[in-house]
């Protein structure tokens, strides 16, 4: 429950309204408690005295109080409606903003279903908590307190009788809170897991269909949803127990008060009006008391939701610039330089070998270097270090002599453009997708499309204004790859990192792209991950990555002749085989 | 995304015309829902639990009876027991004490029984609904998934189901309880005093009107809200799944801004919904409190005139409190009802989609595989394919692939190669003509049979959560660990898998489980190999492999898949070397067809392509 305090910074901006609303609600509730007193006054006064004018007056009081109560309740809701939606939206925007800035390693670890359920279900729970339990736990507390005082003032013996169940009810609430909290957390996590299965089954639909595996997917889904059902039922049983107790004990007390009161009225020690007022007060307190169980349950769920929310919010975002203190030595040469770079994933098991082990590599200004290595040798990881998608564990990377950690990410990423192996397009137009890479206006767009041989874009239904991505036209792998390439070159970056940029292209297109790309590469410093000789030939030199280290650097032909591993990677057979083919 | 604001506003009835203002329903988050589909869905969900719903209702009936006895006992105590006690008749008061004790205990016990019983009903309904959405989404064809975004599909089975859960768990029992207590109390009031009871009953008329108008207004708001949250989800999922390019291209700020717009739209509709609620609460409270004042006025007048007992007035006032107290909660119910109705409508719309690739009504069996020749013959019999929106992709053609033949399909992007593959895998059905597998129309095969015989490996190699072994076993779930490892070895994936922290048991989403794109493709291949199909389709399935990887795959194909029918789509002509036959496609037509040697030796396009490729190998 303490975790709920962490919501304060988000609630703070709307605190004035929230407090006013709580105050208004307390006021409205107290008005509800005054009504029995008016009744008492009527029963013991005008009714007993047969005074019609007094009856009219009493009814008028009741009407006015009733109207006031109604307006205050409405006013409370009006006060919080917009602010609470705003708090929810702010928290969601905050989560989104934060997630966008968390290290890539974080995203590798977290299924996006778990993130999504935090952004939707959990935040909805929090809004509901702020709207009801938060206010009403206070309001009901005050109402019960005032009601009990009124009852004690009316007749202290009856009042004490009513108070008797308070202790067992409180104890039950405390015990219940703990158990319910555990169950609530479990249920929310299970919802997250279920969301993950749903998401994967949608994203991997072609595989599931291709192998006819809907049944096993459905079984996994059924198992998880069955578990969730079990947890929910457990929650329901807990809730039923607490509600049973909360309903029964006070009701028993009211019954006792009724009998005792009736005896007192019969003995003439109590007026009939007081008994009526007393009982209507007790009954008016029923909802405040009954609802405590459900309010606590909601608060508990909100506490769990808060915990889940802050699990993500507490993760450290990418650090900004981390000055490479004292490491200014070394060369001030230009170009892109890896110096003694070692990399190990931050979450890798202890003692596992690093992915990259003391890599030294220098790409001179304007030069392009191809990076070749077996599948899984760490080529993609190496490229991810340049735009600081991952941070080097040891050593450093310099751009024109400056350590990349001394630059802001903004600056670094504006100087380095990347085309990923998996070409992701966003829900936007073709033009917007390409221009994300920088550049401005139609001229740059045209040039980039020409380089990437992506002229097909003009033939799309609305040309470069055609929507693509999640919510638009689906393009083929080759088309997406060419647009991703266009995006990388559109801003005329100083440094270009291409991860197997032509893998999905057919031979003719590839040849055309290569010809155009060569002109771009002529004056760009570039690192190109390559699987094929044709891609390698785009570059001036080649580096071979093997076992986490750079084992050879040279021209394609040099390595082909002098390095067996390289020859194997480029031809599939031993080096001689290729020689024979010539 | 202006859909949310420009979508035509409808009344509460489901009489929508299938086409609204034209346009593709997929562009907006609205699928055509047949009239009455929502109601039918709800009925079909509840029908199997009729008995338990009845039991739950009975429990509630008894519980309310126990609860509502209270004020009646108060009236009895004041009007009968007190005078009796004065003349030393203690009987009535003891009766009151015993009665109260019984009612209170019964109310508590019944409350417990009711909550657990209703939770079971609602959880079973949810289980059923979740399962239905999931299975239906899985059954819908690939072309549906290509148009209906994953974010929307996810929001159908998460937030939309969630709002139904709220309705079932909180709303529905509130409604039944409210209605039931209203009936009980009305009857009791009428019985206590006809006049006072009649006033209370009369107040139902304005309350009913209020509820109606609230419902009408709230429905509009809720429909907008549900669309708004779906848009938020789509954006969220897209960003998280594309986080690398988001970072590399510094999209964070632009995304923040885009997200803010969608988020704010949701915030606004959310606020609108809450304000509607506030308006309703004021209206219903005013009506209720005015009625109370009227009844007290009239009742007190009559008590003063001695035509009404004081105890009756007291009971009436206590009852009124209970009668009107749940009205706010009725609003809360309507609240969850509205959002659930909006959600249910969307779910019904999804469930009403029929797979464009349906299961056969009368499935046919395939003949047994011939011994020694695991492949099957494929015939495209006068097949033509065009998208439903128009635009012909493949003009009418005939093509026979004999059993056991390996066919390479080459051609530039957009030539129709993938469409050909998707027709063969029955991701699509042809617009005209038939695709035959050993003489049997694919449409006559059950999904189960078809998927056992025809397997397609695509370029996108998606891995599911779970271990590497589990991911391979998707090909054949009953496979043993040895078979899984065997498949991985044959395809050249064993080495890298064995090097992972937990080998085959490495969780692909956990520590150290990072797997490169090329390795994912190898896993996908191992999966396909394990499936042991008669026809294997590879759609650019080697694009992320390096040359040794591709060679290993080819070697495996040459040996393990010997005798199977294979269709290989690749722009890397290295694949062609293992093919028996090459098809060159252009603009949806097969322009060249022959053995690799024939075509290379000729002067056609393939000879060109092959020369270009040779050159590229340098």
UniProtKB/TrEMBL annotation, chain A:
The record ties this protein, via PROSITE patterns, to:
ABC_TM1F, ABC_TRANSPORTER_1, ABC_TRANSPORTER_2, PROKAR_LIPOPROTEIN
GO terms of molecular function: ATP binding
* Major subcellular site: membrane
Task: Please give the CDD domains that the UniProt record associates with this protein.
Answer: ABC_6TM_Rv0194_D1_like
Question: Which InterPro entries has this protein been placed in?
Answer: AAA+_ATPase (IPR003593), ABC1_TM_dom (IPR011527), ABC1_TM_sf (IPR036640), ABC_transporter-like_ATP-bd (IPR003439), ABC_transporter-like_CS (IPR017871), P-loop_NTPase (IPR027417), Type_1_exporter (IPR039421)
Query: What Gene3D superfamilies does this protein's entry cite?
Result: ABC transporter type 1, transmembrane domain, P-loop containing nucleotide triphosphate hydrolases
**Keyword Lipid biosynthesis (UniProt):** no
Where is it located? Cell membrane
User: What is the topology of this protein in the membrane according to its UniProt annotation?
Assistant: Multi-pass membrane protein
Keywords, sorted A to Z: ATP-binding, Membrane, Nucleotide-binding, Transmembrane, Transmembrane helix
Q: Which segments cross the bilayer?
A: 21-43, 55-75, 128-150, 156-176, 238-264
Q: Which SMART domains match?
A: AAA
Task: Please provide an example of a Pfam family that matches this protein in its UniProt record.
Answer: ABC_membrane
Kindly provide the name given to this protein in its UniProt entry. ABC transporter ATP-binding protein
UniProtKB/TrEMBL annotation, chain B:
Out of the domains of life, which is the source? Answer: Bacteria
Residue numbers spanned by region Disordered = 1-33
The coiled-coil regions, if any, are none
Q: Does the keyword Membrane apply?
A: yes
Any Pfam family matching the protein: ABC_membrane
Record InterPro entries? AAA+_ATPase, ABC1_TM_dom, ABC1_TM_sf, ABC_transporter-like_ATP-bd, ABC_transporter-like_CS, P-loop_NTPase, Type_1_exporter
- What is the membrane topology here? Multi-pass membrane protein
Alphabetized CDD domains for the sequence: ABC_6TM_Rv0194_D2_like
Localization (cell): Cell membrane
Domain called ABC transmembrane type-1: residue spans: 54-339
Q: Where are the transmembrane segments?
A: 90-114, 198-215, 307-324
Q: Could you tell me which residue ranges the ABC transporter domain spans?
A: 378-612
Q: Which UniProt keywords apply?
A: ATP-binding, Membrane, Nucleotide-binding, Transmembrane, Transmembrane helix
Gene Ontology molecular functions: ATP binding
Name under which the protein is recorded: ABC transporter ATP-binding protein
- Which lineage do the record's taxonomy fields give for this organism? Bacteria, Bacillati, Actinomycetota, Actinomycetes, Kitasatosporales
